[in-house]
Design a protein that fits this description.
Blueprint: H1 6-26, E1 32-36, E2 42-45, E3 48-58, E4 66-71, E5 74-79, H2 86-92, E6 100-107, E7 115-122, E8 125-136, E9 148-153, E10 159-160, E11 164-173, E12 176-177, E13 180-185, E14 191-192, E15 194-197, E16 217-223, E17 232-240, E18 246-248, E19 252-256, H3 284-298, E20 307-311, H4 319-333, E21 338-343, H5 349-355, E22 359-362, H6 377-386, E23 391-395, H7 400-408, E24 413-417, H8 423-449, E25 452-455, H9 458-467, E26 473-475, H10 482-491, H11 494-500, E27 508-513, H12 522-533, E28 539-546, H13 550-561, E29 568-572, H14 578-583, E30 586-589, H15 598-605, E31 610-613, E32 628-631, H16 636-648, H17 651-664, H18 671-686
Helix pairs in contact: 3-18, 4-18, 6-7, 7-8, 12-13, 12-16
C-alpha cells in the first residue's frame, strides 16, 4: 500500500460507492472522482523531494484529468493519472485501473506550516482532493527503541461474503520492521503474513517515539475455508523482532455471511470428456508419430493440422507470457498445428509471434470477468466455433473463462496453471470480497472439467489437487533455450560488460530479475541488503523489472531513504535481460509466492548460483549448498542470513556452485516441455475413441 492505510482505503471506497448510489438516484453525478492517499491533517516530510500519490478519473467520458499540487498557492507539480491502481479498480470498475498518480515536489525547512492543496481538474470541472499542513522534520534516519503496532484490518464486526479475510496493519519492534508476522485464526496453526510492506505514512509517528521505518507494514489475504466451525471468527496478529521480542495485537472478531451464488450453466458440474489421452508419460519418440498418424485418419476432409486456440492474459514481458512464447515458437516450428492466440492485452510479444506466422487476436472480452461486466463466455464460444478450433490451450489461472467457453462448446482443454495461490484468495484478487465466492466456484468447476491441467511444479500441483481432488493434472516442468544462452555468452565478454555497466572486478553482484511487485518482496530485499552492506562494501544489488506503479515507486523511495543508491541499481522492465545475467555473480529471489521462476532457470544456465526463498517449485530445482542457498520466506532474519552466506562464499567456492548450476541446467532444455505439449494437444484434437462429448444443457 501507499501512504493510505489499508483500513482507510476500504472506508473510502465504501463511502464512494454509497455516494455514487445516492447521486444516481438524484440524477446528478460528480464529473471527477479521486483521492489523495494520505490520512490526517498533516503532510509530514523531511527536507528534499517529497512524493505524494493518489488516484483520480472522470466519471463519464474519456478525457484526461490533470492533478495539480499547490504549495502555499503556488503550482509546484502536475501530471496526468496513468499508474495502475488495481485496488481502486476492484471496487469502482475497470475505468479506474490506470487512475493512479504520483508527483514529486521540493520541500524545505521554511515550508513548515504552509498548506499543500491537491486538485484534480478537467476541461469542465475541478475537484479538491484534500488540503494538508506541511510539517518538516529533521533528516534523521536513526530509530528509537520503541515497540508498537496496529492491526488495521479486519475491523471488528465486519461481515465477510467470501472465504477470505484481508489482514493488514503495521508493527515496529525496537523501532524496526518485525522479522516475522503471523496471523492467528481461531485454533489453527499460525500463518506467516507478508512483512516489510511500505508504509511511508508512519514517518509522522517519529514524534511519538515509534520510529520512521517505512517498511513496518504487513498484509495478507488469509483463506478461511475449513478453518472455522461457526459464523464468527477471532483473528489476531503476532510479530517477532530480531532479538526475540514479541508484539501481539488485540483480537478482532468478524462474521461470515455465505452469499448465494447465481445459477449459471457453467457453474454446474459439466460432463467430463471420456478418456482421450493418457496423462502418464510415454516414450516421446513414438507419441508424436502415433498422434500425427491418427490425425490423418480421423480428420477426413479437413487440414491435417489441428487449430489450437491459445488464451492468455497478456502479451507483455512477464514470466507466464515468455513461457508461452517459448512453447509456441517450438510447436510452431514443427509445423504440425495452426495457432490462434487470444489475449485481452497487447504487448511486445505480439510482433514476435506474428513474425513467425502465429495469428494474434486481441479482444477485451476475455478480461471482462475481472472488470465486473457481462461474462464473455458467449463471445469466446462463438470465436472458437467460427474459427473451427480443435483444442483450447489456456495459459494462467485467471483465464478460466476460456476454459468455460471451450467446455461449453465441446472443445477439449489443456489448462496451464502457473499461480501457486489458494483458489479463494486468487478469486478475491480478481473481484474483491463481493464476488469472490462466485469466481472461486467457477474456477473450481473449470478445474474439474479441463481435460488436462498442467503445472510447472509438483508442489503447486499438490496444492491444487488438495483443493480440487477430481482434477486431472500432471506436472510438465518448462524449459528455456539453452542454445540462446550459449550464443550470448560466446558473443559478450563478461569483464567488458561489467566495465561498461560501471562495475569493478571486485564487486559481488546480486541480480534480482522480475517485475517489481508485492509478491516479489523487493522492498524487503532492499531493507535486508542495506543491513549487510555495512560489512560488505563491495556488494551490489541490481533489480531489473521496475515499473512506476505504487509498489515500484515505494521501492525506489526506499533506496533513497536508506541511502543505498550507490550499491542498489533499479532497472526498468527490458527485453534484453541476458546482459544482466552475464555480469552478475548470484541471482537472488525473495519472492514469497513462486511456482517455478523463469529467472532461476536462466540464471543457472548462465552459471549463477541462486539465493532464494524455498517456496513451492523453487526447491525442486535449487539444492541448498549445491546450486545455491535456500532460506525461509517472509523472515527478515533468514533473508539477511542468506545474503551473508552468499557474501561469505569464496571465489573458488562460487566457481564450484557455478559449475553445478550449468550441469543442472541441462535439464531445462525447452524442447522437453514442447514435446510433451505436442503429444497432449494432438491426442486431444484427435478426439475420443468411443464417444462424442456433448456440452451440458441447462439454463
Amino acid at each position: 500500500m501507499s501512504a493510505l492505510g489499508h483500513g482507510a482505503l476500504q472506508l473510502l471506497v465504501d463511502a464512494g460507492a454509497r455516494l455514487r448510489h445516492l447521486a444516481r438516484q438524484s440524477g446528478v453525478m460528480a464529473p471527477i472522482e479521486g483521492h489523495w492517499d494520505l490520512d490526517g491533517d498533516e503532510l509530514v516530510a523531511r527536507p528534499g523531494v517529497c512524493r505524494i500519490s493518489g488516484w483520480a478519473a472522470q466519471v463519464h467520458g474519456n478525457g484526461d484529468v490533470e492533478v495539480q499540487i499547490r504549495l502555499d498557492g503556488r503550482l509546484v507539480a502536475s501530471g496526468v493519472p496513468e499508474l495502475e491502481r488495481p485496488d481502486v479498480m476492484q471496487t469502482l470498475g475497470s475505468r479506474y485501473y490506470r487512475s493512479g498518480w504520483s508527483l514529486d515536489f521540493e520541500i524545505t525547512a521554511v515550508d513548515s506550516g504552509k498548506e499543500v492543496h491537491v486538485v484534480a481538474v478537467c476541461p469542465k470541472a475541478s475537484r479538491s482532493l484534500g488540503r494538508r499542513t506541511v510539517r518538516v522534520i529533521e533528516n534523521d534516519r536513526t530509530f528509537t527503541r520503541k515497540t508498537a503496532g496496529l492491526l488495521e484490518q479486519p475491523a471488528s464486526g465486519r461481515v465477510l461474503t467470501s472465504e477470505v479475510v484481508h489482514v493488514a496493519g503495521w508493527v515496529v519492534i525496537d523501532g524496526r520492521a518485525a522479522d516475522s508476522v503471523e496471523a492467528l485464526v481461531e485454533n489453527q496453526p499460525p500463518m506467516r503474513l507478508r512483512r516489510c510492506e511500505p508504509r511511508p505514512d508512519l514517518i509522522g509517528l517519529q514524534d511519538s517515539g515509534i520510529g520512521i521505518d517505512v517498511g513496518a507494514g504487513f498484509s495478507e489475504l488469509v483463506p478461511l475455508r475449513g478453518k472455522y466451525s461457526s459464523n464468527t471468527i477471532t483473528i489476531s496478529v503476532r510479530a517477532h523482532g530480531a532479538d526475540g521480542k514479541v508484539w501481539q495485537s488485540t483480537p478482532r472478531v468478524v462474521r461470515i455471511a455465505h452469499p448465494s451464488i447465481p445459477g449459471r450453466r457453467w457453474l454446474r458440474p459439466m460432463q467430463r470428456r471420456t478418456a482421450t489421452t493418457q496423462l502418464p508419460d510415454r516414450p516421446a519418440s513414438t507419441a508424436r508419430s502415433i498422434a500425427c498418424r491418427d490425425m490423418q485418419a480421423v480428420r477426413t476432409g479437413k487440414s491435417s493440422r489441428p487449430r489450437i486456440a491459445v488464451f492468455t492474459h497478456s502479451l507483455d514481458l512477464g514470466g507466464a507470457e515468455l513461457y508461452l512464447q517459448e512453447l509456441l515458437s517450438r510447436l510452431n516450428a514443427s509445423n504440425t498445428a495452426d495457432f490462434l492466440v487470444i489475449s485481452p492485452r497487447d504487448g511486445a510479444l505480439r510482433p514476435e509471434l506474428e513474425a513467425v506466422g502465429i495469428e494474434v487476436h486481441v479482444t477485451s472480452a476475455i478480461s471482462q470477468i475481472s472488470a465486473g461486466q457481462d461474462d464473455p463466455v458467449a463471445t469466446l464460444r462463438e470465436l472458437l466455433t467460427t474459427r473451427q478450433c480443435d483444442v483450447a490451450l489456456v495459459n494462467t489461472l485467471g483465464e478460466f473463462v476460456g476454459v468455460e467457453a471451450a467446455v461449453s462448446c465441446g472443445v477439449p482443454v489443456v489448462w496451464v496453471v502457473h499461480e501457486s495461490f489458494d483458489i479463494d484468495v486468487y478469486a478475491y484478487t480478481l473481484r474483491g470480497d463481493r464476488a469472490a465466492a462466485e469466481v472461486a466456484e467457477r474456477i473450481r468447476t473449470a478445474l474439474s472439467c479441463a481435460d488436462a491441467t498442467v503445472f510447472v511444479a509438483e508442489a503447486t500441483r499438490a496444492l491444487f489437487q488438495r483443493m480440487v481432488p477430481d482434477m486431472r493434472s500432471l506436472c510438465i516442468r518448462y524449459g528455456i533455450s539453452l542454445d540462446e544462452v550459449s550464443r550470448y555468452e560466446a558473443l559478450h565478454d563478461r569483464a567488458g560488460l561489467r566495465r561498461e555497466l560501471g562495475f569493478s572486478e571486485d564487486d559481488r553482484i546480486f541480480l534480482c530479475m522480475g517485475i517489481v511487485q508485492e509478491r516479489k518482496c523487493q522492498f524487503a530485499l532492499v531493507h535486508a541488503f542495506a543491513d549487510v552492506l555495512r560489512d560488505n562494501p563491495n556488494a551490489k544489488l541490481v533489480m531489473v523489472g521496475y515499473k512506476p506503479n505504487q509498489y515500484g515507486l515505494a521501492v525506489k523511495q526506499c533506496i533513497e531513504d536508506l541511502e543505498v543508491g550507490h550499491a542498489v541499481k533499479l532497472v526498468d522492465v527490458a527485453s534484453d535481460t541476458f546482459r544482466w545475467f552475464r555480469v552478475a555473480d548470484i541471482l537472488v529471489s525473495a519472492s514469497d509466492i513462486e511456482s517455478l521462476p523463469r529467472s532461476i532457470l536462466e540464471a543457472m544456465a548462465f552459471g549463477l548460483p541462486v539465493l532464494a526463498a524455498g517456496v513451492f517449485g523453487v526447491p525442486e530445482v535449487v539444492t541448498d549448498g549445491v546450486t545455491g542457498w535456500l532460506f525461509e520466506a517472509r523472515d527478515g532474519a533468514e533473508l539477511r542470513s542468506g545474503l551473508e552466506r552468499a557474501l561469505s562464499c569464496t571465489d573458488s567456492e562460487l566457481k564450484v556452485l557455478a559449475k553445478n548450476c550449468r550441469e543442472s541446467a541441462r535439464d531445462f532444455d525447452g524442447q522437453g516441455y514442447a514435446t510433451e505439449f505436442d503429444r497432449l494437444l494432438h491426442e486431444l484434437a484427435a478426439g475420443p475413441q468411443n464417444s462424442d462429448p456433448q456440452p451440458t444443457s441447462g439454463s
